[in-house]
Amino acid sequence: MSGSPSEDSSAPHLRMVWAQARDRVIGTGDGMPWHVPEDMKHFVQVTRGNTVLMGRATWESLTPKFRPLPGRRNIVLSRDPDFTPEGAEVARTLDEAVDMVGEGADVLGGGSIYAALHDMASEAIVTEFDADAIGAVRAPELSPAQWRAAETSEWETSESGHIDGWDGPVRYRFIRYERIENQTPMVD
């Protein structure tokens, strides 16, 4: 692959989608350390009807009744030749995954998938929680030199959400980031 999203018109539009705590924690390694219904509703609104790309661990962290994610084309990246998830397509390499998405996809993680595709992504949709969370998996840093917040919602408080280990109310907001033109690294 050559070029970048802003320089190569044939490059797919990759949009990273995640929720994070203040310290960029996005997961524990086997799931998310929170349940916030408003975030789940937003996730469905953002991704429904789209192709979604995720790693095997993210796929396996989904509740079985939601695998595959309904109303979406599901692509799972896994090097395991015996892995054949029901209702999803499998890509065995990163290049194969990028080829499979066609015009674009919502990248759902996990951490290593975000890291691998970060330089190719042109947009990020982030739910930000005003709370600390315990977890080993972190979102990629969106450097202000390369990314700008194009839309930021007001802070709201979840009616019933909770974050493991957090005693306070769960405040959240949604931020849509765009890559700053001409700041995309070359992808070989």
Automatic annotation (TrEMBL):
Gene Ontology biological process terms in this record: dihydrofolate metabolic process; folic acid metabolic process; one-carbon metabolic process; tetrahydrofolate biosynthetic process
GO molecular function, one term: NADP binding
Protein name in UniProt: dihydrofolate reductase
Family: Belongs to the dihydrofolate reductase family.
Pathway: Cofactor biosynthesis; tetrahydrofolate biosynthesis; 5,6,7,8-tetrahydrofolate from 7,8-dihydrofolate: step 1/1
SUPFAM superfamilies, alphabetized: Dihydrofolate reductase-like
InterPro entries: DHFR, DHFR-like_dom_sf, DHFR_CS, DHFR_dom
Entry keyword Lipid metabolism: no
